[in-house]
Amino acid sequence: SHSKMEATKILPVLKKKLAFLSGGKDRRSGLILTIPLCTEQTSMEELSATLDYLLGIPSEKCKARGFTVIVDGRKSQWNIVKTVVLMLQNVIPAEVSLVCVVKPDEFWDKKVTHFCFWKEKDRLGFEVILVSANKLTRYIEPCQLTDEFGGSLVYDHLDWLNKRLVFEKFTKESTSLLDELTGINENEKGSQAEKDRSSESNILPSFDPETVLQTGHELLSELQQRRFNGSEGGGGGTAWSPMDDELLAQPQVMKLLDSLREQYTKYQEVCRQRSKRSQLEEIQTKVMQVVNWLEGPGTEQLRTQWGIGDSIRASQALQQKHEEIESQHSVISLKSCEPLLKLLSDATVMCLSQMSQQLDGLLGMLCADVAPADGAAIQQTLKHLEEKLKSVEGALQSLREKGQVLLDQMSTQTSFSYGKDVSIENKENIDHIHSVMEDMQLRKQRCEDMVDVRRLKMLQMVQLFKCEEDASQAVEWLGELLDALLKTHIRLGDDSQETKVLLEKHKKFVDVAQSTYDYGRQLLQATVVLCQSLRCTTRSSGDTLPRLNRVWKQFTVTSDERQHRLEMASAFHTAAEKILRESPELAELMVDVEAYEEVETVGKGLLDRLTVPEDPIGGPQDVLQTLLSSMEKTTLLQQ
């Protein structure tokens, strides 16, 4: 098996491209290895090193399918070709299944080529054939051959080499980094003694994890891109043909990246824990210094000073006084120890002012009047309110915690007092802290109630906008129905049956319009109610109501007219059809004159109605024609 050697070690040799894996495959899916011999003398040692390197790339499974080796001898002498073929036997005998020697067109001297490879098959362990470049496609598909053999496979040697270098650098660095991080992380789980030992040792890894991860990601996206460009192995050589699982570059990079991310996250946690530990140790040391001072020279002074101030200003004055005490003591630097009163005053003063600011901000927002332009603006305002409320919550929580610490400290203070009764002063301080916290709680509660009211108002506004929008929509729909009635509902039917059907359709059509109108009215009523509830006198339904009523009035007039016409047409057709049905048999008898007159009257009435100039629908010509011809028939019969 071929040892994994690094490209950097033999870079000058690899650059010479003495052999390469283009990513192409023979018909048995074996990889194609090309050895392009050139006019100058090829160093067998360098060629051997190149082959060793290339054979370290594919997986065992892939090598088991065997290689096809193309030895391009067109620019070389026969004896070199022979040497190379014999050399293959030593370098990769088990893995070569076929060697194609590409011969020059003028062919080598006959005397020289009497050395017959086929006789040597058993000795060599593989088959060797001499072939002209244009005959190579008998053995290998053109899409798997590079252009020097007339194929269409793209291969860029330099690009391939650069990718190999990046890949190997990443693999090397990430593997080494993984070992280091895993070591550090495992160590952290060990016993306290081990931890103490390791905290002395340096825990900085030798490579920057962020940089290595970045390199890995860039490399991975390069590899994956080849898949999308559809160029299997194109420009990337075998190791960069991501479609082949056996060429392990891509899965390997992914696996390394995953492990690296996992260990790096653990490592960051370890660092956090260590930094916490060292901070605690530092604090412990300082606290011990304070205790020593308190038991010694500080006792007297601290005995006389218990107040913590009942306002920000008072606390700050006490703080200043306290700092003066600190500076008098050259024995121990109290500055770094942060004794009790200073620490507590600071924290509470900070928290109080933060909480006040947060509440003022929220209150300001609630007092400002709102007139948002649309639903989106309302959503934005609501979101803003919720955020403000959240930050007030946070500030109050923080104040509670700080206050509690202050109270706890006060109750344990007696242990420092060495017999002096400090409960009276303490009681005042404790009561004051309680009253401040209650006051803040009440202020927050009031703000929350106001937020609830504002939220309700906003949601009603959203409803109002929606109702107004829908009401306008209803007016538009009604307008479209009116339009349809005027322009397309014109036919009166050619016989009584058809007229009946048209009457039915007309009724349904009117029902639809009626419900649209009612819907519009309900929406407008809802907007009035919402406006009253919101007390927004500035808004009104605008021109929507008059528009709705105007369109509805036009619709009613037009539809009534249509109804009348259809009813008259129906009466006319029924009467006319009756006469036409009975007349053939009764031609010789006297027909009922009244029946004729009725038909004529109805017909004339309908004609007059259709020719009225100010008629809202207008008289369609074809209807007139039908009526006239029906009336002519009846008149003829009469005569």
UniProtKB/TrEMBL annotation:
Gene that specifies this protein: LOC107562705
Residue span(s) of domain CRAL-TRIO: 1-157
Ranges for region Disordered: 183-207
Protein name: CRAL-TRIO domain-containing protein
SUPFAM superfamilies: Spectrin repeat
Keywords: Repeat
Pfam families in alphabetical order: CRAL_TRIO_2 (PF13716), Spectrin_SESTD1 (PF24915)
Family the UniProt entry places it in: Belongs to the SOLO family.
Gene Ontology molecular function: phosphatidylinositol-3,4-bisphosphate binding; phosphatidylinositol-3,5-bisphosphate binding; phosphatidylinositol-3-phosphate binding; phosphatidylinositol-4,5-bisphosphate binding; phosphatidylinositol-4-phosphate binding; phosphatidylinositol-5-phosphate binding
InterPro entries, sorted: CRAL-TRIO_dom (IPR001251), Spectrin_SESTD1 (IPR056804)
Biased composition (Basic and acidic residues): 186-199
